[in-house]
Amino acid sequence: MIIPIKKQLSFLIIIITEEREYMTVQIIDGKTIAEALRAEIKTQVEERIAKGFPQPGLATILVGEDPASQVYVRSKHRACEEAGMQSLGYNLPADTPQEKIGDLIKELNQDKKIHGILVQLPLPKNLDEEEILNTVALEKDVDGFHPINIGRLAQKGREPLAIPCTPAGVIYLLKTVLPSLEGKHAVVLGRSNIVGMPVSLLLVRENATVTICHSKTVDLPAVVREANILVVAIGKPEMVRGDWLKPGAVVIDVGVNRVEDPSRDRGYRLVGDVAFEEACEVASAVTPVPGGVGPMTIAMLLRNTLTAAERLG
Ligand code: GUN
Are 16 and 118 in a shared domain? Predict the structure, then answer.
């Protein structure tokens, strides 16, 4: 049967329209994935203790009164407790001299009960962050921020002792939807030491082709539109719009931003760096905020602390 060309075209248009309507987005549930990981780590801690090894111990150092950092550090201690690990918190005033922080780290480096040391970032501006991170014993660097660990991460054929927690969580979540990242074009928005740069290095190690964007990038939406994988860590509420995305992209939103919301009792709600509802219309998979990357950071910290304890005995 010969169908007139006009009819064929309208048939095609219907198929395309229907395919778009039926494309469902996968919401990557970081909360549930992190809970499963934390349960596994808790079991491994119990097994370790049953064999007669000491409880893994994490020390945190928080300098100053940054409210977001206080919340993060409290969550890290709660998670340690739930996983059967010991945790020690040092909360120091913002004007603590550099040498005093150095001395505390040196003491913790020698402490047999402590297997991991975490200096919460950012530090007050007057402190030399590089020197402080360099003082942490390499084998107790559960954040993976020691210059040697970061250097190893950046080099082929070298293995860091620990991988930074948020970037490790990003890769873990990506692999739940894309088991191989090889050959994918990954675009990373942000080049911070904590997220953007290490996540870019990890993506290179996964054989992705990586573009790093930042405040000086020209025509950001056009670059983002090329991404099979998009990782966003820029700290700007809902900056990435749905029409910036390539259809079918996998979007990992690392941003956590408070925006005013009088309809909530607390007066604000949390949003990511990506306009979530819009992204859901275009992407194949998206992380929510909250409940996406955030819970993974803590799960990865527990994993790094257990690994450090296993190495130290
Ligand atoms: N500040 C924000 N994220 C992190 C993190 O993963 N580790 C530390 N130490 N500080 C942070």
Answer: no
Instruction: Please state the rounded mean pLDDT for residues 286-310.
Output: 98
End residue of a domain, out of 126, 141, 156: 141
Atom of ligand 1 nearest to the CA of 297: 6
Nearest protein CA to atom 1 of ligand 1, as residue: 121
pLDDT single digits (tens) 88-115: 999 999 999 999 999 999 999 999 999 9
Residue 175 shares a structural domain with residue 274? yes
CB 107 within 8 Å of CB 66: no
Q: Which domain holds residue 251?
A: 2-30+164-296
- Tens of pLDDT along 110-120? 999 999 999 99
Coil vs helix vs strand at 104: helix
Q: Helix, strand, coil: what percent of the chain each, to 5?
A: 45, 15, 40
The count of structural domains within the chain is: 2
Q: What is the CATH number of the domain that holds 108?
A: 3.40.50.10860
**215 plus 171 within the same structural domain:** yes
Residue 76 a catalytic site member: yes
Rg of the chain on CA atoms, in Å: 22
Q: Does the beta carbon of 119 lie inside 6 Å of ligand 1?
A: yes
Residue 206 shares a structural domain with residue 118:
no
Q: How many CB atoms lie within 10 A of CB 225?
A: 16
Whole-angstrom distance, CA of residue 118 vs CA of residue 164: 11
* CB 59 near ligand 1, within 6 Å: no
